[in-house]
Inverse folding.
């Protein structure tokens, strides 16, 4: 859990400030009201003979002084000095705790999110995928035709009276309905992707760091050219199989050991190398062999019809009616030779709701992930990881857990002899394996 941020200007600080001022004022009042210090005493002259019978004598003057003080002023002086000492001590302690906390958090931020992320996050992006609704509906029409032939859409796919003809020329159809929502609203961004992105922006604002910007990428634009974050410390991508930035990052970092599967009856999902899933996953996952060296990972008891019927509001989803779901959080250091490195995060769920939960989980548990995978890494690349989290779809993030036995790290890939960007040939298999 993210520890609370100590702040200097709080009610406690103001109280100690008032006490400090009061102590100083009280001391000054006592000093001026009590008047000058009065000393009373008496002097005595004593004569002594010289040493060894010398004729000279020595005279010694003894002075006894006694301070005359008012007990009230003495008490008030002690009280004023106590107020000043305690107030100064507490204010200094608070200032040092804030200073040490800021240094600690900045160190964690910069090692987890990327070099100077605490200062340069404003230049970073949280990437969301945008699609034209006409393109989505046109693609839907093509798929429905493939299912039902050239005629009507099958009743089980879209209702007995539904027809593909309205999707054949979707632009004409949309222009013919000026009172409809889609008449002038033609772009679509997933609501749950946005919720996950907003959680990550909130994280940075909570630490009073300038947050990254939410950047929407149009599918019609070449992805690799348009992002203005080449020199930014990090990039976060929301969404799984239909997000181009996710496809690019997974292809760059994970291709030998993980890929995105698509198609019926699950939609986009994750498939891992059989080597990685030899360790048993929690019972809330179902494993299906793809027949080509990969294993498909699915939530236990997955039911699309039941999932679609879940209320949008998480508070209305009971534990009894919830559907199991999962998401991944991927940290990959993109370090092209001769160029500045960039930490690229992918937050992606089996469903859209899981993507939102993934963002909320990263917001709440990034320090735990730093402690587990980044803190003691030998270099930047060895701080990379992929974690799998699982829980009830749409329910609060506190009910989700990490499948720790499944975490993928460079060290684990090294032991399994999987060659990839996290285990480059230059240092691959340099340590004795069991």
């Amino acid at each position: 859990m993210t520890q609370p941020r100590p702040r200097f200007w709080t009610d406690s600080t103001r109280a100690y400030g008032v006490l400090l001022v009061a102590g100083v004022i009280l001391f000054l009042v006592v000093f001026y009201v009590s008047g000058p210090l009065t000393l009373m005493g008496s002097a005595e002259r004593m004569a002594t003979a010289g040493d060894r019978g010398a004729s000279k004598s020595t005279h010694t003057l003894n002075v006894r002084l006694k301070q005359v003080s008012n007990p009230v002023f003495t008490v008030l002086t002690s009280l004023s000095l106590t107020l000043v000492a305690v107030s100064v001590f507490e204010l200094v302690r608070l200032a040092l705790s804030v200073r040490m906390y800021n240094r600690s958090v900045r160190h964690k931020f910069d090692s987890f999110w990327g070099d100077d992320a605490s200062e340069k996050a404003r230049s970073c992006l949280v990437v969301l995928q945008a699609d034209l609704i006409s393109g989505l509906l046109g693609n839907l029409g093509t798929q429905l035709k493939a299912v039902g032939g050239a005629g009507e859409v099958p009743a089980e796919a879209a209702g007995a009276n539904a027809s593909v003809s309205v999707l054949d020329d979707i632009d004409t159809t949309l222009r013919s309905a000026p009172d409809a929502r889609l008449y002038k609203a033609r772009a679509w961004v997933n609501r749950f992707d946005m919720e996950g992105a907003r959680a990550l922006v909130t994280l940075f604002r909570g630490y009073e760091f300038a947050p990254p910007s939410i950047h929407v990428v149009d599918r019609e634009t070449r992805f690799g050219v348009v992002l203005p974050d080449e020199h930014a410390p990090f990039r976060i991508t929301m969404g799984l199989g239909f997000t181009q930035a996710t496809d690019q990052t997974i292809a760059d970092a994970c291709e030998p050991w993980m890929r995105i599967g698509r198609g019926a009856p699950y939609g986009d999902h994750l498939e891992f190398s059989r080597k990685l899933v030899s360790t048993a996953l929690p019972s809330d996952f179902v494993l299906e062999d793809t027949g080509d060296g990969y294993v498909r990972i699915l939530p236990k008891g997955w039911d699309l019809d039941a999932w679609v019927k879940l209320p949008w509001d998480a508070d209305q989803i009971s534990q009894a009616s919830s559907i199991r779901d999962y998401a991944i959080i991927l940290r990959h250091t993109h370090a092209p030779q001769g160029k500045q490195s960039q930490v690229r995060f992918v937050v992606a769920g089996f469903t859209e709701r899981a993507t939102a939960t993934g963002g909320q989980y990263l917001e709440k548990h990034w320090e735990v992930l730093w402690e587990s995978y980044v803190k003691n890494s030998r270099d930047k690349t060895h701080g990379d990881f992929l974690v799998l989290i699982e829980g009830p779809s749409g329910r609060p993030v506190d009910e989700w857990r990490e499948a720790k036995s499944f975490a993928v790290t460079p060290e684990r890939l090294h032991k399994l002899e999987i060659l990839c960007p996290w285990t480059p040939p230059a240092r691959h298999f340099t340590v004795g394996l069991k």
The chain has three domains: 11-106, 114-130+189-427, 134-187. Residues 11-106 form one domain.
